[in-house]
């Protein structure tokens, strides 16, 4: 089975009203419960945007910021382990409906240690 990253940036939900956000929160938790019940849930959550990112070097040196050529990482994500890309797309559609925004889907490369 392959692990998939299903994600969206924070800006994708900025158009929602407070009421719509509350409904999306409820509905997305229902999808999480369904994924757990189906045995495909690995991990999920939102990036805490109030905590600034840092870069840590191999020698342990820490500096503020991120790779300058990379776009900002924010929003929410889910990692599922499913038997096929089609299954990942089906779950992504459920998450998109719950969150009221489109979801990006990416496959993790196989790693026998994970």
Task: Describe the protein in words.
The termini are close together. The mean pLDDT is 94. The radius of gyration is 16 Å and the shape is globular. The chain has helices at 18-38, 85-99, and strands spanning 2-8, 41-46, 54-56, 62-64, 76-82, 104-107. By secondary structure, the chain is α+β, with helices and mostly antiparallel strands. Helix 1 runs antiparallel to helix 2 (85-99). The chain has two helices and six strands. The longest helix is centred in the N-terminal third of the chain and has 21 residues, at 18-38.
Mean pLDDT: 94
Quickly count the helices.
2
The 3D shape can be described as globular
Stretches where pLDDT falls below 50 for ≥5 residues? Answer: none
Number of E strands:
6
The end-to-end span amounts to 12 Å
Strand content: 25-35%
Short description:
The protein has 114 residues and is α+β, with helices and mostly antiparallel strands. 32% of the residues lie in helices and 26% in strands. A hairpin with a 5-residue loop joins β3 and β4.
Which key terms come to mind for this protein?
single chain, 114 residues, alpha+beta, four-stranded antiparallel β-sheet, two-stranded antiparallel ribbon, 2 helices
